[in-house]
Amino acid sequence: MKLLLIAGNWKSNKTISESEDWIQKFNAKCQMLNAKWENKTVVLCAPFTLLNILKESIEAEKLPLGLGAQDVSPFGDGAYTGEISARMLKGLADWVIIGHSERRKYFMENDEVLAQKVAKAKEAGLKVIYCVPDDKMSVPRSVDVVAYEPVWAIGTGKSDSPENANSVISSIKKQSGIHIVIYGGSVTAENVFSFVSQDAIDGVLPGGASLDPVMFARLITAAISG
Ligand code: PGA
Question: What is the pLDDT of residue 1?
């Protein structure tokens, strides 16, 4: 069976009480949809401030959700005020997004610092989802998953065509040697199946569509069953 990874990216959104509300509603919706995605991987990439509470709620409700962070420090533990090291994350999250275009754009993260982040995350045993805007960008060898996210498609409601995403993703796989590559950029419950039914696309990275629990549950169901 084809692999399927769905990684929701909450970006810089949600307070503790909003995240608790999300879990309650998501849980209720999953039970209603009777969704069976045990053999698929669904990950929620949340702000650092929510990882602890989400971990507790996911365990308490026995939800089939993994947890990820959206960034990690390029340094280890120590005198780096404000930073969250990979070792601090481990235990709270299994996954981490590195190199999202918003980090590259607003926080000036370049290939060198991203390579350091990947190295630290791997050292701590985290699984890395590494974002690239096209098939020209270099990808560190040790990442687990690449996310192809054309910048113009992020948060615009204009997704790439499934055929073009499939061809860019095939090219990324060939060039990087990474076997799992997913698509991100305006993925919705309505268009998700057109992406995941392509040969080379192993999953999706929805941002906006992961913020609403009902919409996210619908997106997962649509990805699995079409
Ligand atoms: P979007 O975001 O689904 O809201 O376009 C995707 C992303 O930036 O990861």
Answer: 58
